[in-house]
Amino acid sequence: QVQLVESGGGWVQPGGSLRLSCVASGFTFSKYWMNWVRQAPGKGLEWISAIKDGVGSPYYADSVKGRFTISRDNDKSTVYLQMNSLQPEDTAVYYCAHSIKGVVELLTYSSWGQGTQVTVSS
User: What is the C-alpha separation between 92 and 102, in angstroms, rounded?
Assistant: First the structure.
């Protein structure tokens, strides 16, 4: 079955950086888009980034564009999220998700991992 294991979260001061990783199994990783989604305290799920299968063109929500970079290593079945210039509003649990074509459908997606907590505060 699909398994997604996120890691790399933690506490960081405003302006700091973190690199998240998500190791995937249970599906042919290279043939799927991979996404990063977050959920801030008391708020709903927010899609923030995706990377296409194959060559891996990236897509970003306006809220993270220019600060976050998504990448993938198909040999390791891993997707990464490099997060720079972090701000308190980036505080959330971060999840990865796979999708066969296009951005993940948040309302119907069911293969969530445990997520990784990112806390940005001074």
Answer: 23
Tell me the per-residue pLDDT of 87-108, one tens digit each, with 9 for 90 and over: 999 999 999 999 998 889 998 8
Residue 21 contacts residue 7 (beta carbons within 8 Å): yes
Q: Which amino acid is at 59?
A: Y
Of 43, 60, 42, whose CA–CA distance to 51 is shortest?
60
Report how far residue 88's alpha carbon sits from residue 83's, in angstroms, rounded to the nearest whole number. 13
What pairing do the DSSP bridges indicate for beta strands 10-12 and 116-120?
parallel
Burial 58-73 (b: 16+ CB within 10 A, else e): ebbbeebeeebbbebe
- Cα 39 from Cα 43, distance rounded (Å): 6
